[in-house]
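Two proteins follow. First one:
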Amino acid sequence: MNDNSQLLAGGRPPRAWLFDVDGTLVDTNDLHAAAWREAFLHFGHDIALDAIRWQVGKGGDNLIPSLLPNLGDDQQKALEAWRGDLFKRCFLPRAVPFEGVRALFERIVADGSRVVLASSSGEEEVAFYLSLIGAEDLVAASTSKDDADSSKPCPDIFEAALGKLGVQPTEALVVGDSVWDMKAAAKTGIAAIGFRCGGFPDEALLEAGARALFDGPADLLARYDSLFARHEEEV
């Protein structure tokens, strides 16, 4: 982990923690990549799994054009809809939460901060993940793709999350696992930390703007007390 003593201006704890969900709180990145691979093949496009895996974290509106830039709008909508149905039927039931999510949320809430699930997945998927984590009582708000015109790395999702809570970018902290989370946070003016559990390289996360790296929710919880220690000592 790099120096995290100034995650926010003044070293103060955030008023709101904006958590990405897929790959950050639940182990789904490989499931998403496999679903996309199957969908592309179904529509006659043989795209390498590694290439797809790198794009996971984007919504279909940005992922598909990154891999098939000349695909027409109608074909893109059909492909995205087919993949969405496939994922919910065959892959979503295999999702599991990472260790320590609820305990981490409990610690954050105990400090007087609010937890937001800032996801660009569908509303049904977000609700399923929240139930899977078992933290409905700890989450102040959530976003889905219905709250944004464009998915990450566009800033829409994080802007929507801030709007729901009425907090400023400097009062929030993003936690994500992909370079697209880091880029979206930077465009919104929000500090961000990265989780390695999503499978993206350290160098890529740091280059995209992550101010600190953790293995996942349990690692962040274990190091939580040191995050804003400097501020607590000065108060």
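Second one, unrelated to the first:
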Amino acid sequence: MSEPELKLAKAPIVEALIDIDCDMPPGLDLAALEGPARQTFRSQYPKFRNQFLEHHRIESRIDEPAKHSARRAIQALQFLHDDEKQLVQLRAQGFSFNRLAPYTSLDDYLPEIRRTWELFIELTSPLQVRVVRLRYINRILLPFIGMRVRLLEYLNLGPRLPDEERLQFAGFLDQHSAVEMDTGHQVNIVLASQPPENEKLPIIFDICVASAGAVEPKDWIWIPTQVQSLRGLKNRIFRHTLSEKCLNLFQR
């Protein structure tokens, strides 16, 4: 069943990203791609940085000193706008497009996602698309009344204490994983508190939805079709997790 579009004057999104995980060619060397990739992306994404993954191994045997070894490998090549609000990533597992606040609408970014995805294909020759993942990280500021925030008034889904009158949260991390029955889409929802600031309690509301497949990388039509399906699921999760009182905070 479709729902009316939720329009917010000031959406609490701090970061939105799309991951497209792929089967990559055996022996893909990201380090060797750095030069060609810089040349390809530098007109729109002039800033560059590497993301590394370190593996540490400790071996311990009786009556022998422990042996430690470490291995460092490039996990992603990251290309950023001058203001660092938008970036494209060539990852060992695929492609990512990140947009930080201010964020407008997914529709505004899809043409650029397609353009940079096609550049990614030219550079890396992925074998097959496996997963499309859509993730939105929201930061919601809930007002204190006295020394408390009544979470029940703002969150339909979230942490609960066994005695709301005599116990008060010092912090929380609440996580849910699910599968959408009709589509098989994977869902991961995280609600976490941050330290208070300016008489408000910041809440991180992280929604990640993913669709699995086995698709040719050049079949672009499949990707936005899945993205739009995931977007609808993400919007339903957002709407049903937050109360009307909470949603009204984003209309001011």
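SUMMARY FIELD: The mean pLDDT is 89. The helical segments are 30-41, 106-124, 222-241, 244-247.
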